[in-house]
Specification:
The complex is a heterodimer of chains A (about 220) and B (about 220). Chain A is built from 9 helices and no strands. Chain A has helices at about 1-20, 25-40, 50-70, 70-75, 80-85, 90-120, 130-155, 160-185, 195-220. Chain B is of the alpha/beta class. Chain B folds into 2 domains: about 1-75 and about 150-160 and about 175-224, Rossmann fold (3-Layer(aba) Sandwich); about 85-145, no CATH class. Chain B has 8 helices and 10 strands. In chain B, helix 4 (about 105-115) packs across helix 5 (about 130-145). Chain B starts with a strand and ends with a helix. Classes of the chains: A mainly alpha (about 220), B alpha/beta (about 220). The interface between A and B is medium-sized, with 24 and 28 residues.
Chain lengths: ~220, ~220
């Protein structure tokens, strides 16, 4: 299993490095959206709940770009068939794709979160960054698992660009709610507080439940 | 050994295959003829475990498909219309990826690339290669893991005579594999066949030992 996941991940990163189809698009989308929010809200800066909402809605829609592209090369260039012909555990594809998407999210957030801090956020990110990283990690894990599951389903249909977001967004709403609630105190201008533990716990449980569901059903998604 | 018993497959309402039955002994070659849409590719994909038959029974290498598909994957080499190669990766990178999936030593990659005459272009991205070169790399991919059964869909498409000769040792009768070959070339196809299957609209229109095939019988399938 580890060898297979390693082989798939290596291929995934090589293809992304050569095509630059996912991460740059996600980062550009996020930065552009922050600029649009800057003018649309008619405010030079935001904080607290408003800031958390802007941040997570933007990150979610930018993540959808990566989700939609996740299996496209495999579907268009026969990678699915090649994988299905190999004597390997099919769950390896779920794990490798989820890890790849998690890595893409982490890399694009390296650009998007500081850009948010510069363009829109009133308080400095420095003090709350360690806690915010924890929220980002939990939310990204959920987006990666659900995104992989939905992308594998959508890519086998003709309307994949439409079906992916339609299926993914309802499933990702609880993550946005949890992440926004957990981040709001971190982005407050007056005395930034800690993330409420119940929202972090909720995010963790949601990740776990969908991780188990994805592991249970992924083989069937790949079957004819 | 490949055994099919009344195998059928539908795509929605359309029957792509119906009641196909045959038995192909180990090491022999079955060549499948038929016009476009006759069900040749569907038959190959069922044998490759990529499609489930909707009716009938399929046995490949003594295993029932699709129930025991896991036991034959890795023992089958498929060369279809699509090369199953990532365009952005080089020939060597693609084959190393397949070698890792199949648990094959990476030294085998150079060996098969050399055998198909692509050693010198191994580091070039597949998207920059000509169709014929891509087909040669696809041949290398199909035989990389030394399969016992070869499923070949017009394997010599896009290959010049020299390349055909070069890959013949890997995917031709000399390979020693049990082979199912889809072809539109009556002369060349029958010459390399032990058995001939003719399909028309998903049904068997011809099944004979190659030595019994009469002149004009293959052409009749296409009328």
């Amino acid at each position: 299993m580890r060898r297979t996941v390693g082989a798939l991940l290596r291929k995934e990163f090589l293809v992304e490095l050569r095509t630059l189809e996912s991460v740059p698009g996600m980062a550009l989308f996020a930065v552009s959206t922050f600029v649009v929010f800057h003018f649309a809200l008619d405010a030079t800066s935001v904080n607290g709940k408003e800031a958390a909402g802007v941040l997570w809605v933007t990150l979610l829609f930018a993540a959808m770009l990566g989700v939609n592209r996740l299996f496209v090369a495999d579907a268009e260039q026969g990678g699915f068939d090649a994988f299905l012909l190999a004597p390997v555990d099919r769950s390896a594809l779920l794990i490798a794709k989820a890890l790849a998407l998690l890595a893409y999210l982490a890399v694009f957030e390296l650009v998007a979160v500081p850009a948010f801090g510069l363009l829109l956020l009133e308080p400095s990110l420095g003090q709350s960054m360690p806690d915010l990283l924890g929220v980002l990690a939990l939310a990204d894990l959920g987006i990666a698992v659900i995104g992989t599951l939905v992308a594998a389903l959508a890519v086998q249909t003709r309307a994949r660009d439409l079906l992916g977001p339609l299926l993914a967004l309802p499933l990702l709403v609880p993550i946005v709610i949890g992440a926004a609630k957990a981040s709001a105190p971190l982005l407050a201008i007056t005395a930034p507080g800690a993330s409420p533990a119940r929202w972090l716990l909720g995010l963790g449980l949601y990740d776990l439940v969908f991780g188990l569901i994805a592991y249970a059903v992924f083989d069937f998604l790949l079957e004819d | 050994m490949i055994q099919l018993s009344r195998v059928g497959r539908r795509y929605g309402e359309r029957e792509a295959l119906r009641d196909v039955s045959l038995s192909l002994p180990t090491g022999q070659t079955l060549v499948v003829f038929g016009p476009n849409g006759a069900g040749k590719t569907t038959l190959l994909r069922i044998l490759a475990t990529l499609l489930r038959p909707h009716t009938g029974e399929v046995r490949v290498l003594e295993k029932q498909l699709p129930a025991q598909g896991w036991a034959v994957r890795g023992r089958i080499g498929l060369l279809g219309h699509e090369p199953l190669l990532y365009r952005e990766l080089s020939a060597a990178e693609n084959l190393r990826f397949h070698a890792r999936l199949h648990g094959v030593a990476e030294s085998r990659v150079a060996e098969v690339l050399d055998a198909v005459g692509m050693k010198d272009r191994a580091s070039e991205a597949v998207k920059t290669l000509s169709r014929g070169m891509v087909q040669r790399v696809a041949v290398a991919r199909a035989v990389l893991h030394e399969p016992e059964v070869l499923l070949l869909d017009e394997p010599y498409a896009n290959l010049d005579p020299a390349a055909r000769e070069q890959v013949a040792g890997l995917i031709g009768a000399q390979s020693g594999c049990t082979r199912v070959v889809c072809s539109h070339d009556p002369g060349g196809g029958v010459a390399e066949a032990d058995m001939v299957l003719g399909l028309r609209e998903g049904r068997m229109a011809l099944l004979k030992a190659a030595s019994d095939v009469q002149e004009g019988e293959i052409a009749e399938l296409y009328r």
